Amino acid sequence: MPIPGKRHTYPEMAAAGLWTTSGDLAAFAIEIQKSALGRSNKVLSKASVDAMLTPVLGEYGLGLGIDSVGGYFQHDGGNAGFVCLMYAGQRSGKGVVVMTNSDTGGPLTREILRSVAREYGWENFFTTK
b/e per residue, 4-33, with b = 16+ CB within 10 A? Predict the structure, then answer.
């Protein structure tokens, strides 16, 4: 069912106020990957990215989910009517961004992620998934 007004406006701007495109979110993931390798600091310094990619609470770093065994980082989220996922290798240069316009898009984002990982032979992905 369509959302009246197309999207909600939330008072929690940090948690629910960011709207972006899949291309821009992918560019952000690529900059994280480049910074982690010391090849760029256009968005974040290597020190900041290293802190983000270091688990501090279970499988979570600063703002990102961390798969230390597989070597991936991720962030997912959603608001009423939308679900998205960014998943990328910390050092491999591989990644995917999936955005859906559905409250129930979570299973679809995970299936697309698994399909991309299988098709492109992501190393260590299926050891933990």
Answer: eeeeeeeeeeeeeeeeeeeeebbebbebbb
